[in-house]
């Protein structure tokens, strides 16, 4: 057999190498190996697969002068290139021991070269820090490994003259074909990895696009209205045949194929859907019978059903349908799983936000309940004392008290700034009647301020009350309050300033509820409505006074509604 003929025969055996490479590229453990985070189990799998591939190379060998021209190096070197020196050497040992017991005058040298070449692949792995080893580096490693094998044969095979004759025949074919085989093997794996990354990128992009579109609807909770809009978005984005969303008992929405008979409000009948709700696990229906539609004309033939959870409790399902049987792909499955996770997370957030809102509102009502009895008692005493001596003023104070009480019962999320100011004026008019000349109130409002900008109710008044009670009341001679409203480029800045006795450090620590319930609640509401940039800023100096400032952004988001405001 001449060199060319041997080269052609060995080249034909590369088909086996390519097949094994393809199979290996589909193994889940390969992903962890390529990320260089393999478990011990992953390393053992790679070792035995690579060693087995080396043995397969021996079985496919061509006998030449009592020796074997083979492709054993491809398996063991790839083991080293993928798993490191230990994996490569161990795979080489498996293949090498098998080669040794096959026999022949090159048995020991070929067995030894398998271990050395596997270890050499591992050394390349150890020093290559740029990710998956490219094909040209793998080719160089295979080329060098086969040269080393020829040198080992010349060194250890006896008689030397036969070893020389053997190397003359097998050197060029084995160095050429096996180095190309190593390169092809790594190229196939690289292609498979890149394909998986493209699929993952497509999945992530689809999930992200859907997420951006469905989040506003998920904020409404899971009901027939929101489910219908969400299902339409998913259908348009993914291009599946139909999308359905259910709760635990009935269909909330079904859009696409079958929407003429899969109707919202109908009870759940599909066994796979009921299993998903019962077990909390993803269910796949690959056949029309598994979907279980009673309509004989229904074209839905396969589906993936993903349970929707809130705090680990299954509250419904998301279903993606296809018109062909057995057409649920890994991309469909992963996108459905990702969407279900988004549903669950967002529904939990909505629940927490609802609880937080109810908690804040309850605290606000509690604050109002504490304020009103004392304030009303003091206001009525003041009005009674004025009825005979200043009846007109007493009448005005009664009207202001009515304004105060009517306003405090409001339940709106936001009101115009001018309405909040009228409430403050009503409150201060009563307090000024009580304290007379000891309480002076001034307003400075820039002309460009638009007093129709929406603000949460009961925002400025607690700050004014805090200035009266904690700043001016302890001061024998009384003092002055200045309410200042300035127009900045992107916000309206509101401040309440007094020249009273100042407040303690504990009242300035707004993170502590015990530091002053009024200030704490105002600060929490501002954070919830506008974010951290609008929280209260308190500056206070003993004996000099206190200034409390906050911002109302001209463009901001309140819960469930985005407001854009420009003066």
From TrEMBL:
<dbReference type="InterPro" id="IPR050640">
    <property type="entry name" value="Bact_2-comp_sensor_kinase"/>
</dbReference>
<keyword id="KW-0902">Two-component regulatory system</keyword>
<keyword id="KW-0472">Membrane</keyword>
<dbReference type="GO" id="GO:0000155">
    <property type="term" value="F:phosphorelay sensor kinase activity"/>
</dbReference>
<keyword id="KW-0597">Phosphoprotein</keyword>
<feature type="domain" description="Histidine kinase">
    <location>
        <begin position="460"/>
        <end position="556"/>
    </location>
</feature>
<dbReference type="InterPro" id="IPR010559">
    <property type="entry name" value="Sig_transdc_His_kin_internal"/>
</dbReference>
<dbReference type="InterPro" id="IPR036890">
    <property type="entry name" value="HATPase_C_sf"/>
</dbReference>
<feature type="transmembrane region" description="Helical">
    <location>
        <begin position="6"/>
        <end position="24"/>
    </location>
</feature>
<feature type="transmembrane region" description="Helical">
    <location>
        <begin position="169"/>
        <end position="189"/>
    </location>
</feature>
<dbReference type="Pfam" id="PF06580">
    <property type="entry name" value="His_kinase"/>
</dbReference>
<keyword id="KW-0812">Transmembrane</keyword>
<dbReference type="Pfam" id="PF02518">
    <property type="entry name" value="HATPase_c"/>
</dbReference>
<dbReference type="GO" id="GO:0005524">
    <property type="term" value="F:ATP binding"/>
</dbReference>
<dbReference type="GO" id="GO:0005886">
    <property type="term" value="C:plasma membrane"/>
</dbReference>
<dbReference type="InterPro" id="IPR003594">
    <property type="entry name" value="HATPase_dom"/>
</dbReference>
<feature type="transmembrane region" description="Helical">
    <location>
        <begin position="44"/>
        <end position="62"/>
    </location>
</feature>
<dbReference type="GO" id="GO:0071555">
    <property type="term" value="P:cell wall organization"/>
</dbReference>
<dbReference type="InterPro" id="IPR011620">
    <property type="entry name" value="Sig_transdc_His_kinase_LytS_TM"/>
</dbReference>
<feature type="transmembrane region" description="Helical">
    <location>
        <begin position="137"/>
        <end position="157"/>
    </location>
</feature>
<keyword id="KW-0067">ATP-binding</keyword>
<keyword id="KW-1003">Cell membrane</keyword>
<keyword id="KW-0808">Transferase</keyword>
<dbReference type="InterPro" id="IPR005467">
    <property type="entry name" value="His_kinase_dom"/>
</dbReference>
<keyword id="KW-0547">Nucleotide-binding</keyword>
<feature type="transmembrane region" description="Helical">
    <location>
        <begin position="101"/>
        <end position="125"/>
    </location>
</feature>
<dbReference type="InterPro" id="IPR029016">
    <property type="entry name" value="GAF-like_dom_sf"/>
</dbReference>
<keyword id="KW-0418">Kinase</keyword>
<dbReference type="Pfam" id="PF07694">
    <property type="entry name" value="5TM-5TMR_LYT"/>
</dbReference>
<keyword id="KW-1133">Transmembrane helix</keyword>
<dbReference type="InterPro" id="IPR004358">
    <property type="entry name" value="Sig_transdc_His_kin-like_C"/>
</dbReference>
<protein>
    <recommendedName>
        <fullName>histidine kinase</fullName>
        <ecNumber>2.7.13.3</ecNumber>
    </recommendedName>
</protein>
<feature type="transmembrane region" description="Helical">
    <location>
        <begin position="74"/>
        <end position="94"/>
    </location>
</feature>
């Amino acid at each position: 057999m001449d060199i060319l003929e041997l080269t052609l025969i060995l080249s034909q055996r590369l088909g086996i190498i390519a097949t094994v490479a393809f199979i290996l590229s589909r193994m889940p453990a390969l992903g962890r190996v390529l990320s260089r985070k393999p478990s011990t189990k992953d390393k053992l799998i790679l070792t035995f697969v690579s060693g087995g591939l080396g043995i397969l190379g021996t079985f496919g060998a061509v006998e030449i002068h009592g020796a074997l021209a083979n492709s054993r190096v491809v398996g063991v070197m790839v083991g080293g290139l993928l798993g490191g020196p230990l994996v490569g050497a161990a795979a080489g040992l498996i293949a090498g021991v098998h080669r040794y017991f096959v026999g022949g005058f090159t048995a020991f040298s070929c067995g030894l070269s398998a271990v050395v070449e596997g270890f050499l692949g591992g050394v390349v792995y150890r020093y290559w820090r740029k990710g998956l080893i490219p094909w040209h580096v793998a080719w160089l490693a295979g080329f060098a490994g086969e040269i080393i094998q020829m040198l080992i044969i010349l060194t250890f095979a006896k008689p030397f003259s036969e070893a020389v004759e053997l190397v003359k025949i097998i050197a060029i074919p084995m160095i050429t074909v096996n180095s190309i085989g190593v390169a092809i093997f790594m190229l196939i794996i690289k292609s498979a990895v890149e394909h998986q990354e493209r699929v993952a990128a497509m999945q992530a992009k689809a999930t992200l696009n859907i997420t951006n579109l469905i989040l506003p609807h998920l904020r409404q909770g899971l009901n027939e209205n929101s489910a219908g809009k969400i299902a339409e978005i998913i259908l348009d984005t993914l291009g599946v045949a139909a999308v359905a969303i259910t709760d635990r008992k009935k269909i909330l929405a079904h859009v696409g194929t079958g929407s003429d008979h899969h109707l919202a409000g109908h009870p759940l009948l599909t066994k796979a859907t009921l299993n998903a709700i019962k077990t909390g696990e993803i269910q796949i229906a690959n056949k029309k019978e598994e979907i279980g539609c009673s309509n004989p004309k229904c074209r839905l033939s396969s589906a993936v059903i993903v349970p929707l959870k809130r705090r680990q409790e299954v509250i419904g399902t998301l279903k993606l349908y296809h018109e062909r049987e057995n057409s649920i792909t890994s991309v469909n499955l992963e996108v459905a799983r990702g969407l279900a996770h988004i549903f669950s997370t967002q529904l939990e957030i909505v629940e927490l936000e609802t609880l937080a809102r109810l908690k804040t509102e309850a605290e606000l009502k509690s604050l109002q309940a504490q304020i009103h009895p004392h304030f009303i008692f003091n206001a009525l005493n003041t009005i009674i004392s004025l009825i005979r001596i200043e009846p007109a003023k007493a009448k005005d104070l009664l009207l202001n008290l009515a304004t105060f009480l009517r306003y405090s019962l409001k339940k709106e999320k936001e009101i115009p700034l001018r309405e909040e100011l009228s409430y403050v004026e009503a409150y201060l008019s009563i307090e000024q009647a009580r304290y007379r000349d000891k309480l002076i109130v001034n307003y400075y409002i820039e002309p460009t301020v638009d007093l129709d900008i929406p603000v949460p109710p009961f925002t400025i008044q607690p700050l004014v009350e805090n200035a009266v009670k904690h700043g001016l009341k302890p001061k024998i001679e009384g003092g002055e309050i200045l309410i200042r409203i300035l127009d900045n480029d992107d916000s309206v800045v509101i401040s309440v300033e007094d020249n009273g006795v100042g407040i303690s450090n504990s009242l300035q620590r707004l993170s502590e509820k015990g530091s002053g319930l009024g200030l704490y609640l105002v600060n929490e509401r501002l954070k919830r409505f506008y974010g951290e940039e609008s929280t209260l800023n308190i500056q206070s100096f003993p004996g000099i006074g206190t200034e409390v400032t906050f911002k109302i952004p001209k463009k901001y988001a309140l819960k469930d509604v985005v407001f854009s405001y420009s003066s």
